Amino acid sequence: PGTAVRRDRFSGGPAREFLSSLAADEAIFAADLAVDRAHVVMLAEEGILEPDVAGGILSALAAVEADGHDALSEGEDVHEAIETAVIDRIGPDGGRMHTARSRNDEVATCIRYRLREDLLELAEATLALREALAATAREHAGTTMPGYTHLQSAQPTTVAHHLLSYESAIARETARLLDAYDRTNRSPLGAAAFAGTPFAIDRERTAELLGFDGIVENSMDAVSARDFLVEAAATIASLATTLSGLAEDLIVFANKGFLELDDDYASTSSIMPQKKNPDTLELTRGAAGDAIGELTGVLTALKGLPRAYNRDLQGVHPGVFEIAGLVRDATDVAGGAVATAEWNADALAEAAGGGFSTATGVADLLAMAGLPFRSAHEIVAHAAASIEDATDADSTATVLDAAAEDVLGESLFEYVDRADLESVLDPNVSVASRDSAGGPAPEAVDDALSSVDSAIAAD
Ligand code: ARG
What we know:
The chain has helices at residues 16-19, 29-45, 51-67, 78-90, 103-139, 159-184, 203-209, 219-224, 227-255, 279-302, 317-340, 345-352, 359-368, 373-384, 393-408, 418-424, 427-433, 442-458, and strands spanning 144-149, 152-158, 259-260, 342-343. With 459 residues, the chain is mainly α. The chain has 3 domains: 16-99, Fumarase C, Chain B, domain 1 (Orthogonal Bundle); 106-197 and 218-350, Fumarase/aspartase (Central domain) (Fumarase C, Chain A, domain 2); 354-458, no CATH class. α6 runs antiparallel to α9 (227-255), α9 runs parallel beside α11 (317-340) and α15 (393-408) packs across α16 (418-424). The radius of gyration is 31 Å and the shape is elongated. Bound molecules: arginine. Arginine is lined by residues 21, 77, 103-104, 107, 309, 311, 313-314.
């Protein structure tokens, strides 16, 4: 009596390595120890374990923790291996640790415990990136730059407006991460294999000891559910996708000479000594591929799985932990690159008016003077064919007037003053006039900047 019967069924043979998740389980080693402790404390509190047995198990767990994951030897996974290590230390009573639970609820709890940490670290990384974006925006509130659609020069904007567009997007990523955290933060422990247990356990107590907000109620749902991994992977993929756009913009801007990356965020070539390459941003851009692939992998693995536990599940979570770490690092790197890059205000100002980027402003001016916007658009489009850029305001005004004669059969100056027309050809005037809510005009950007710090602090 009291002698542990070692598992001898399905535990050996050529498939043993294939079955084992012990190496990947390093990611949940700390989580498993926490889960074991909480479970043992609850069992003792409920009188299911003798206090001295519980004490013995807890000290054995401390020794297992001190030895670390690498010291584990026996078992197809970390749960078995830790139990074996406890039994090796204190004898058969160590096997009482697994009373009223299964590896099914145990692993589900471990994954959630570990993922909570990943989600919080990711959320923190987004806050640091948002701070970097806001601080750089504040420095460059008045730095005019070209804005693009289809990568073609479109309308002038400012560095601040551009960077704050990413701050707004990353703020939604923070919110998504925190939402995912809320649904992850529920304890499956005590669901046992799926059918609960006849022992008088207290699931709420283990949930509390492990810092969960509550339990995953239905015991079959508790062991089967991995939708929290779908949500985490989707959220991480969304963040990575947003980051990839930011990285791409910075790569293009570096290429155009609009900014220079700090050496810390660049790399060089092993053969071409003159090269300064934006490698960190390229890796950041590439991380989205890993994250999207992982999301697809998680969904594919889960699709069509029947209730309750199936071993397919063992392969699902390790990749989510990996993209969590990768995208957290990418977020940190993007923040560092933004905070340290030197923007070239002169190159930006020169390019801001390029490609007749103030054409929309001319059409707006004519429409404000009473012409239907479509007619205004037609006049400016007609002129645009012969305007390379609008840096020479006087000759541009003349070309525009000729276009009006062609299209309308009357002079533009029946509608607008020549001085007003020449003025809207200035990219800075264009930016200053676009003061609608959320626009690039300094007042609108000031409004955005005045709320951004408190929004970051609130998150
Ligand atoms: N290592 C397994 C996993 O990660 C633990 C659960 C094993 N349960 C079972 N019934 N075979 O999913």
